[in-house]
From TrEMBL:
Residues 52-111 form a coiled coil. GO terms for cellular component: cytosol. Belongs to the Skp family. The lineage of its organism: Bacteria, Pseudomonadati, Bacteroidota, Chitinophagia, Chitinophagales. This is Periplasmic chaperone for outer membrane proteins Skp. It comes from Pseudobacter ginsenosidimutans. Keywords: Coiled coil, Signal. GO terms for biological process: protein stabilization. One of its GO terms (molecular function) is unfolded protein binding.
């Protein structure tokens, strides 16, 4: 009986020793694995960036769109100037007619002239609002197309680059430090221009 008790005590002591060993050695191994994983994650977490100003200045598609928008704006301003000139000429004509009639002018004539000018002003305001709304819609559509083109290109570009993020940078943005090693602006402009040239060359 005493022998069994002694054997059980020895076994318990051995098992306790084994558990202590596994516990502390296992933690070391886990820590080692954890540190290695952290190092790998740290080394693989890269953030690239591109300069918005440079992209706008050198991307041919953006320059073409900007030129189209300038022409559209010039056309809008030209039409509004013509409408305004028509209004001013009509005001002068009516004033001249009123002066020539002198005392013979009737209240009905005055009311008719006022209604005509009010209608011209209303038409001008409505046309101006319509043109500006169309201009704004075109701008939004162009920016959405530009954004999607850049995003789609960067998805392909980053397949073998391994960046976790690729951010856009512009002057005034809160960025205290940027390493030019991670500047992908040149690659982006070159790739986008080649893509755009190929697209323009298609019949």
């Amino acid at each position: 009986m005493r022998n069994i008790s002694t054997i059980l005590s020895v076994l318990a002591l051995v098992l306790t020793g084994v558990l202590f060993y596994l516990h502390f050695n296992g933690n070391k191994e886990l820590k080692k694995v954890s540190v290695e994983a952290e190092k790998t994650a740290h080394n693989s977490f890269r953030i690239g960036y591109f300069d918005i100003d440079s992209l706008q200045n050198h991307y041919e598609y953006f320059k073409d769109v900007l030129e189209q928008m300038k022409k559209k704006e010039a056309s809008m301003n030209n039409e509004l100037n013509q409408l305004n000139n028509q209004y001013q000429r009509r005001v002068q004509q009516l004033q001249s007619q009123m002066q020539s009639l002198g005392q013979a002018i009737t209240e009905a004539d005055q009311l008719k002239a006022q209604n005509e000018l009010a209608t011209m002003q209303r038409n001008f305001g409505e046309r101006k609002a319509s043109l500006e709304q169309d201009m704004q819609k075109t701008q939004v559509e162009n920016m959405a197309t530009l954004r999607k083109t850049v995003e789609d290109y960067l998805k392909d570009y980053n397949k073998d680059k391994g960046y976790a993020f690729i951010l856009s940078y512009e002057p005034g943005l809160l960025m205290y430090y940027k390493d030019t090693m991670y500047d992908v602006t040149g690659d982006l402009i070159k790739g986008l221009n080649a893509q755009y040239a190929a697209k323009k060359g298609k019949p």
